[in-house]
């Protein structure tokens, strides 16, 4: 038989931080369970409690999980790169993409040159070899 006693509700990271009793109506309990206290501390230090709640209330219910993940990622990036945050990482990756695209263009030009040289040589250079694709 099930125990009919009061259920024990573990305080979320936000309520632990504020040293208050957490109830089932807590707005942040779903996003910051007790195990995620480090993430909560990072987000709290960057945004503050009121701003975090404003941000959550400003988005639709189905987008709140993604919003919290974004806040956590932004807080982590801000700790790792305090001056520019995630922008420095995005800029670095953008430069790497540009470099790779330039390299790809050079390779394509070389392939085009090689194909052009093969076509100019004519069919006489292919004599004795089986058809190649």
TrEMBL record:
PROSITE patterns associated with the record: LOB
GO molecular function: DNA-binding transcription activator activity
Pfam families, per the entry: LOB
Listed GO biological process terms: regulation of DNA-templated transcription
Keywords, ordered alphabetically: Coiled coil
Record domain LOB: where: 10-111
One of the record's GO cellular component terms: nucleus
Family per similarity comment: Belongs to the LOB domain-containing protein family.
Protein name: LOB domain-containing protein
Species assigned in the record: Erythranthe guttata (Yellow monkey flower)
């Amino acid at each position: 038989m099930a125990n009919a006693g009061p259920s024990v509700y573990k305080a979320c990271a936000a309520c632990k931080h504020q040293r208050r009793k957490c109830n089932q109506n807590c707005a942040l309990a779903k996003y910051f369970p007790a195990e995620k206290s480090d993430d909560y501390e990072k987000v709290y230090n960057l945004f503050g409690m009121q701003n975090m709640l404003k941000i959550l209330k400003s988005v639709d219910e189905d987008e709140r999980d993604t919003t919290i993940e974004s806040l956590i990622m932004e807080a982590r990036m801000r700790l790792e790169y305090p001056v520019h945050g995630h922008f420095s990482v995005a800029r670095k990756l953008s430069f790497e993409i540009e470099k790779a695209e330039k390299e790809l263009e050079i390779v394509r030009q070389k392939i085009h040159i090689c194909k052009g040289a093969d076509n100019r040589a004519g069919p006489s250079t292919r004599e004795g070899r089986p058809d190649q694709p």
